Amino acid sequence: MSKRSEIWLKLIQIVSNVEADLGRVLQAQHGIGLSEYRALDILARSQDSELRMQELATHLRLNQSSVSRMVERLERAELTIRDLCPHDKRGVYTVLTEKGRARLESAQPDYEKALEAALAEHGGEKLLEIQGSKVK
Fold it and tell me: Is there a domain that residue 132 lies in?
């Protein structure tokens, strides 16, 4: 195995371990998974806190079917709602609700704390060093 392949494998292992830790914390403390947290975060950063379903799928690197199931779960929890595109009735938007924004804001400090701990535990801090200084 080449040195590059070894480094790539290590990177994948670190990312997988960090994401597993983040997912456990978010589920245990806030009742949402990591993809759901990311969806809420992306929606909060989007214009009018809404995105077409396919745009959300692109941001999350998930297929349309997975995003539809996830948005359905978020809707049942009243964290998002679906809305039809006014110009194209085939286009469907998912929109962040106030309850969804509150859940995101509640989860963000725990996410950041868990991210810092997981990066330290799994060796991710070294990956984030840029010319001798850490990304904060």
Answer: no
pLDDT tens for the 136 residues of the chain, in order = 898 899 889 899 999 999 999 999 999 999 999 999 999 999 999 999 999 999 999 999 999 999 999 999 999 999 999 988 766 666 789 999 999 999 999 999 999 999 999 999 998 887 777 435 555 5
Domain holding 64, by residue range, is 3-125
Report the domain count for the chain.
Answer: 1
Residue found by looking up tokens 């745009």 in the block: 55
Please check whether residue 44 lies inside any domain of the structure: yes
pTM: 0.88
CATH number at residue 76: 1.10.10.10
Residue 42: closest CA among 14, 80, 85, 88: 80
